[in-house]
Amino acid sequence: MSTSEVVISASATAAVPKDYVVAPSSEIIPLCVTASIDGTGAATAYLATLEIISDAGLVMARCPCNTLIAAGGSADVSWFPLKQAASSTASISFYQQVVLNLPNVRSYWPLDETTGTTWHDLGPSNNPMTAVGSPIMGVAPLITTGHSATFSGAVDGSARSIQYGTGAGSYGTWPGDNSVSVVCWYSGTFAHANSRLLFTLDNGSNRICQLVVTTAGLPVWQTFASNVSANPAVTAVTAINDGVRHMIGATFNGVSFAGKIYIDGLLSASGAGTGSHSTTSATPTLMTLHLGGNFTQPMGGTSDEFVLTSGELTATDMANLFAAGTT
Amino acid sequence: MTAQPLIADLPRDIGLTGDYTIRITALNAATGAQVSGVNVSNVVITALDVGTGQVGTFPGGGGPLLPIFEMPGSEIP
Questions:
Q1: What share of chain B is helix, strand, coil (3-state, %, to 5)?
Q2: B33 touching A, CB under 8 A?
Q3: Phi and psi (nearest 5°) for A316?
Q4: pLDDT, tens digit, for every residue of B28-74?
Q5: How far apart are CA A307 and CA A183, in angstroms?
Q6: Measured in whole angstroms, how far is the alpha carbon of residue A23 from the centre of its chain?
Q7: Do B1 and A15 touch (CB under 8 A)?
Q8: Digit-coded pLDDT (tens) for A132-180
Q9: How many angstroms separate the CA of residue A50 from the nearest CA in chain B?
Q10: What whole-number distance in Å separates Cα of residue A221 and Cα of residue A214?
Q11: What's the N-to-C CA distance of chain A in angstroms?
Q12: Which residue of A has its CA nearest to B65?
């Protein structure tokens, strides 16, 4: 088997989306893609975008040109690897690219740090999360790259959580229609005597949304019309305390008030909420991990790759994330 | 048309096997929805063929997949 450079060219004009399918029984590594983009007929501004799509039809990578092209505008675009692996900061992983190409990402904590008390936020909110109580950092990742963190789930003599993460910065006025999604990975074999909390999002005084895990290990996605009543509460049908890594995705639609929970990239359950919902209009300020309600119900186990968005992620987004984290 | 020259990032060292697709499209920055009225032309894809060495074609309007030179020392035992 040899390695050779190949060039494929197609000068003909075609409407987007335009697909180029890799020939069967071959494998290529793209080095550069150039194209003339004619947006004369475009009524709105747009991002010239290259997507890599698997043979199963999943979008494995979405590579927008970050310069917004005005309505009616045109461009000659070249896509090629820009980031150097030898740069001072770690090069972005494939999973991180998939996450950051999701629509409406607000915060993204990969939990890749191996020391210290800070988990950096790669999203536009840039709200670093503080590791409190020395959770174990630098644990083997639950996806294919990076690291994760293990939380004890233990409480102190006052029944307060010992180890947790907290992001205390403001996320600003929540854009869009108050939709919200959270995605994370978890692995553990906890056997707590009561329900526990994997994460919460609140405004410092009132809960906005949270993920409760029952004593049977079933995740329950809750969003709130008030601080007290979940609206809706959606319980997944798959337990996550079997010691196997799981990707948990939870979404809330701010228009229909429907909640959905996904396990390992597949829809597990959904539920309908009612109106007068204050999910995110309260300006979220605090994201916490493994910190129980009233600090008394932290959940033990290993977590990885927390993502917070201000939109409702789709089933395709969830499938793409799971595929990116497991391949 | 007056076309502005732009660059964009591409994943490094990502191997695409048979039936994977490279798609060029135009998306709305806020919603991610496809924007209509945009055409693409003069597409050139430069790639490293790390497969069987078999010359294939790109269906869907692409041209033939033609090796242009062998890289010395690139033989994989």
A1: 0, 45, 55
A2: no
A3: -65, -40
A4: 877 778 899 999 999 898 888 876 544 444 444 444 443 333 333 33
A5: 5
A6: 32
A7: no
A8: 999 999 999 999 888 999 999 988 888 888 999 998 787 877 877 889 9
A9: 5
A10: 11
A11: 24
A12: A8
Rounded to 5 degrees, φ, ψ at A323 are -65, -40
Nearest to A31 among B47, B58, B66 (CB): B47
One-letter amino acid at A240 equals I
Question: Is B47 within 8 Å of chain A by CB?
Answer: yes
Q: How far apart are CA A114 and CA A104, in angstroms?
A: 28
Q: Report the residue from B38, B63, B75 with minimal CB separation from A37.
A: B38
Interface A-B, measured as beta-carbon pairs within 8 A, has a size of: 360
Q: Which residue has the tokens 């692995």?
A: A187
Q: Which residues of B touch A58 (CB under 8 A)?
A: none
Considering only alpha carbons, which residue of chain B is nearest residue A54? B20
What number is the ipTM of this complex? 0.72
Output phi, psi for A207, to 5 deg.
Answer: -70, 145
At residue A19, what is the residue type?
A: D
| 3-state SS, residue A211 | strand
**B72 and chain A in contact, CB less than 8 A:** no
Answering whether pTM is above 0.80, one says no
Residues 6+ positions from A232 with CB-CB distance below 8 Å: A222, A223, A257, A258, A259, A271, A272, A273
Nearest to A153 by CA among A326, A273, A1, A301: A301
In terms of Cβ atoms closer than 10 Å to its own Cβ (0-12, 13-18, 19+), residue A102 is: buried
For chain A, what's the residue count?
Answer: 327
Cα A66 to Cα A46, A78, A211, B6, B8: the distances in Å are 10, 12, 34, 9, 7
Phi–psi pair at A90, nearest 5 degrees: -60, 140
